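User: ok so my PI wants both of these folded by tonight, can you help

Assistant: No problem, let's get them done. Here's the first:
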Amino acid sequence: MSAPFFSAPRTALVTGAGKRLGREIALGLAKAGWRVAVHYRSSAAEALQTAKDCLALRSSSADLSSPSLAADPHDFIFKADLADEAATRQLLPQVIAQLGTVDAVVNSAALFEHDDAHSFSYANMAQHWATNTGAAILLAQALHQHCQARAAQTQAHTAQAADAVVINMLDQKLWNPNPDFLSYTLSKAALEAANTLLAQALAPRVRVVGVAPGLTLTSHMLDDDKFKQLHTLSPLGRSSSVEDVVSTVVFAMHNRAITGTTLLVDGGQHLMKFERDFSLM
């Protein structure tokens, strides 16, 4: 899928793009013609590989004379600890200084550590809140400020300046709650609420859209057989695949009529009741 609305290369910052779903989203956007700024916290080698792969994908489908395609992949990777407010505030300006403009942010990075009502602590909640919620809000704020500055410089009309978008990666768990991973769930619930608040506050320059996958990738907590079994637990007989989630992100990035809502991509898992989190079943 290409980006049919825009003549110039568009740039997206994808957080947590060195590994797992963040990497797949970055690759999907590169296939769709986007320049991708790859954020990482500690996975420098993986982030560099993602940047290399994104540049290769763009070069196979875009104008080979484009200067960005000949760039050093190191120029497309950006380190920041999203739990650190100062580092998070510096992230988007660093991308802008390096790449010139940013048109989208995909908040994919997330802290996912187990706690419940018995082990809950302020410290654990604060850590999840900062990484999963606060960082996404700060990056949306920074993107809006960037769009305002661009509009002022170019004297762009509102309609021309309203193409920026923030995608917040959420979780079907919010519509199908269970008591596991309490701090994680609360942080994502706050981010889902922020979709509405940010969409109201940042319009018309920035759209804000949530994408909520179901069980998509396995983890160290699930063996392959257990993952395959759990993946079938949905009304459609399958949860979301990586391709399902990535195509939804790309769709939300390109569809300029969507804001302030969440797209659930889970095979209907949110319609079912699970007593435990998938990783603990």
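One down. Here's the second:
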Amino acid sequence: MDVRIVICGMGRVGRTLVGLLVQKDKDLRNRYGLNLKIVAAVDIGGAAMAPEGLPLKDLMAHLEKGGRIEDMIGYGKKGFSGVEALSSGIADLLVETTPTNITDGEPAMTHIRTALSKGRHVVTAAKGPLVLRYNKLKTLAEKAKVKLMISAATAAALPTLDVGLSCLAGTEVLTAEGILNGTTNYILTRMYEDGCPYAEALAEAQKMGVAEPDPSLDVEGRDTANKILLIANEVFQAGLSLKDVSVRGITQVKPEEVDRAKKEGKVIKLIGKVERKEGKIVASVAPMTLPADHPLASVRGTEKAISYLTDTMDRVTVSGGKSNPMGAAAAILKDIIRIYRE
């Protein structure tokens, strides 16, 4: 089966996905019967287009030499937008990898709405539109009878949604708890294991590239809030918005609190949590003191994990998965395969 893809956003995740498609081309054909063709690659300055599919090895070579997407010889179109590509009738599916924007969700919001309104499947790594307009976008997808897949937006390669939606089918999920941000888990691990002060651990994480120069999205808990909101809405069908999630980050976690927890045989972790409470679905983010036998207590460094408590399967926990562009690209590819296998 030929699948014609428009990809919007040619940053690290977009480029990694192109490389992954080159690497996995034969496997995708043999195992899944899929011929994934990128017919348009769009970035801020324009696009490269080919209705029959772009030559991906040539595209990668062009980008690796520092070339801009719109300057690719024979394929470049300066100023050509994602909306124009999606409206041209050459695509079956949108892959959205533009930078996350929690303020208004753009440009991903417009790309996703355009694709859904034209009956195209969507696979997105951008959290902004999902955090801001989840219910409306899901309704739009349902009306168009297409899929809106969001694995890469909920902790990259960690299969948070696959476990909650597929592996736990037939159960009632009572609680979901997750370590969903590698930066904060790294900082808390250093504070716990080595007595490292918060500021020193943060500076170390920034030097390693684990934390951004502006780490506020991570350390204030907002990145975890975005992810736990999506888990609440997908797995629990909660219909929540970001204002419904109480959020407290790790900036006020003091060394003496970490030391006290350690002496008691416990550990402090930043936990995103969804639970059923008094007939309502409640979502929160906060540092929590976990006993040593809690399945999330042993998650160290930049590792992430999700733990579900159910009525019939008891507790199911999964950890690991790359938290980098390759992890996100792999999650995007997984979602594409799922669309066409189902």
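The chain has a mean pLDDT of 95. Residues 160-319 form a domain with the Dihydrodipicolinate Reductase; domain 2 fold (CATH 3.30.360.10). Good luck tonight!
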